[in-house]
Every structure is written in structure tokens, then in C-alpha cells.
Write a structure and sequence with these properties.
Serine Threonine Protein Phosphatase 5, Tetratricopeptide repeat, alpha+beta, Nuclear Transport Factor 2, Chain: A, disordered N terminus, 5-stranded mixed beta sheet, about 50% helix
Length: about 375
């Protein structure tokens, strides 16, 4: 009675067996029925009830037509039962033998997915990744319980294989094939990150451009994703005519404009995108663009002075110039110069720009 309950969802398969048994000679059926054959005892594990249940499943397996949905249902249940017993070695051996002996079985992709799952449970993530990759590249997609096995493989590989080139392919596959099944904002942003890592700057800018309409999306590990993507996209679209070939050239131009009290010339040296003006206490996302006010009103009637040397915190990629005399409660401003990292345009990459102002003395 206990076995009957376990097998109730295989009722349709059992009915088919009964029909075969009724309308076929007993001699023929006995040739297929495990009742007259010895099931490999290696596959019969657990309690007596477990063994009996597995034996009945293996009996069912011999009856079903190869490659049929019914055979798939039985195979899947046998593998799943090993999983419930946490005997992943048996699951792997059973499914491996199925795929080897039936290389054209339409469900082999799913069987390999279960093998990958078993390896994950055993802590063999690299081996699991090989199976996920095998499925994607060699087996057609299948919908099992309305879930795509290719989608499952891609989602797992993104976590298991951090090779940037592979990540680019994974995210592009996700976006093109499963846009309604994934977090599209995260996929676009992470595609941009992967493209950057492999030096595909055109691909990165396109990915970030596609991400921008999702402004406000939460990207795990990237709290400033919106700002980061916008800065790169805006910079890529700009003329970049405010850059200087060297820090010395930029510094000299800015200092000459300050000495002459020429606010118009000084304004021309500002970065036209991503320029900020904030106190040292403000976080980077609290930006106040310098384009919102006129530099002249803070220079009028004042002699702006600047330090003879760059601040000691300056380095090979960023520099700070201390200036004083501005018409503002915080009359000390630090000009922030930054080396441009933008391999997409070699003629700009490595240049310097004046990208911001910090109000007040440094801490």
C-alpha cells in the first residue's frame, strides 16, 4: 500500500504497462519486465522500502519507449530519488549510463543538468560548470516545468566562471534570449563591466547606454551604478575639448587664468561632463554641477591665490591644487585634476582634465 502511494503520479505509465501485459504474450513481456531480470544491486539502495520502490521504477524503465516522455518521467524520478537520499554518486552513475547508452535521447540535456546539480551538491563546482557549458553548446533547449534548461545553465555559469570573455557571452545570451526572465538592468550593467574587463569599450558603452533607462535599479555590489554608467556614457558622447596632454599643461593653464582673473577662460578648462563641486564631507553621489553657477561671481573683486606646489596627496592619476580668496563662506577651494582612463579613444586616453572642486580645507 505504501508503494502504491509513492507511485500514484505514475498512474498513467502503469496503465500503459497493464495494457501491454494484457494484449501481449506473457513470454514477450517477461523479456522486458525486470521481474524476471536481476536489477543491478548497485542501484538498489536505502531501506527495504527504498529498494522496492527503486526496483519498481527500474521495471517501469524497461517498458517505456526509448526517448519518450514516459521514459523521461521515470528516469527523472529515479535520479531525483537518489537526490532525496543524498546519494549523488548513484545519481551521476545512473544518468551517465543513460546518456552514454542513449546518445540520441532528446532529454540528454536535462540529464546532464541533473549531473551538474549532483556535482554542485558534492562541492565539485568546476565539474558542474563543464556540464553547464556542455549543455549550452551541444544540446537544444528544453522547457521542464516551464523552465528553460539553457537559462538555468547561464545563470549558474555566471556565478561559476568569472572569465571576463565568458561573462560577456553569458550576459549577451541572457539578454538576447531571455529578456523577460531576468533582471535586465543588472544584465546590461554587468555586461558593461565584462566588456570593460576584456577591453571592448564600444561594447561597454553600448551596454551602459542600454542600462541608463533603468535608472534607480539596484545592482548588487554597485551602489553607484547609475552615476558610474552615466559618467561613462556622457563622457563618450562629449567632444572632450577641455582635456590637456599632461598634468603640467593643465595646471599651468588654470594658474594663468587665475592670475589674470579671467573667469571665462577658467570656465573653458572645466570638464563639460561629470564636473562636480562639493565639500569634502559630501558623498560622491551628492553632486552639484559647476554649470549651475557662474565662476565670475566668486572671483569678482578678489585676487585668487594658489599654492606653489600640488597637494602632497597628489599622485600619478589625480592631483589637488589648493586655492584661496573665493567669495564664499568657505573661501578655500581645492581644484581636482584627474588622469583620463578611456581606452576607447587612444588620443584622449591618458590626458588630464579638471573635473571638480572641493570646498574647504582638507581633513
Amino acid at each position: 500500500m505504501k508503494m502504491t502511494k509513492k507511485l500514484k503520479y505514475f498512474a498513467n505509465i502503469t496503465i500503459k504497462i497493464i495494457i501491454i501485459f494484457t494484449f501481449t504474450s506473457c513470454e514477450f513481456v517477461s523479456g522486458l519486465w525486470y521481474g524476471t531480470q536481476e536489477v543491478d544491486k548497485y542501484f538498489l539502495i536505502g531501506t527495504n522500502d527504498d529498494k522496492e520502490y527503486l526496483k519498481e521504477l527500474f521495471n517501469l524503465l524497461t517498458i517505456e519507449e526509448q526517448g519518450s516522455e514516459a521514459e523521461f518521467a521515470v528516469t527523472r524520478e529515479i535520479a531525483a530519488y537518489y537526490g532525496r537520499l543524498k546519494n549523488y554518486d548513484r545519481m551521476i552513475h545512473f544518468l551517465s549510463s543513460r546518456t552514454i547508452n542513449n546518445p540520441h535521447d532528446p532529454y540528454n540535456g536535462y540529464y546532464f543538468l541533473m549531473i551538474a546539480y549532483a556535482n554542485m551538491q558534492q562541492g565539485s563546482a568546476p565539474i558542474a560548470a563543464l556540464f553547464f557549458d556542455l549543455i549550452l553548446k551541444n544540446y537544444p533547449d528544453l522547457l521542464i516545468n516551464n523552465e528553460s534548461i539553457h537559462l538555468i545553465c547561464l545563470q549558474n555559469l555566471i556565478n561559476l566562471n568569472k572569465n571576463p570573455e565568458h561573462q560577456v557571452w553569458y550576459y549577451r545570451e541572457l539578454i538576447s534570449r531571455f529578456p523577460e526572465k531576468i533582471d535586465l538592468a543588472a544584465a546590461y550593467f554587468m555586461l558593461g563591466q565584462a566588456c570593460e574587463a576584456v577591453g571592448d569599450w564600444n561594447g561597454a558603452i553600448q551596454a551602459y547606454t542600454n542600462y541608463l533607462p533603468f535608472s534607480g535599479a539596484i545592482i548588487t555590489g554597485f551602489p553607484d551604478a547609475d552615476r558610474y554608467a552615466k559618467q561613462l556614457v556622457d563622457f563618450s558622447r562629449s567632444q572632450k575639448d577641455w582635456t590637456f596632454e599632461s598634468l603640467q599643461a593643465l595646471r599651468s593653464a588654470v594658474q594663468e587664468a587665475l592670475e589674470d582673473g579671467d573667469s571665462a577662460r577658467l570656465s573653458r578648462y572645466q570638464a563639460k561632463v561629470n564636473f562636480f563641486a562639493r565639500s569634502w564631507e559630501q558623498i560622491e553621489t551628492d553632486e552639484a554641477g559647476m554649470t549651475r553657477f557662474n565662476l565670475a561671481q566668486f572671483m569678482y573683486g578678489n585676487r585668487i591665490r594658489f599654492a606653489s606646489e600640488l597637494d602632497e596627496s597628489s599622485n600619478t592619476t589625480e592631483a589637488f591644487l589648493r586655492t584661496t580668496g573665493w567669495s564664499q563662506p568657505l573661501s578655500t577651494w581645492y581644484f581636482y585634476f584627474r588622469k583620463i582612463y578611456f581606452p576607447q579613444e587612444p588620443e584622449i586616453h591618458g590626458n588630464w582634465e579638471w573635473v571638480g572642486i572641493y570646498y574647504g580645507e582638507k581633513f
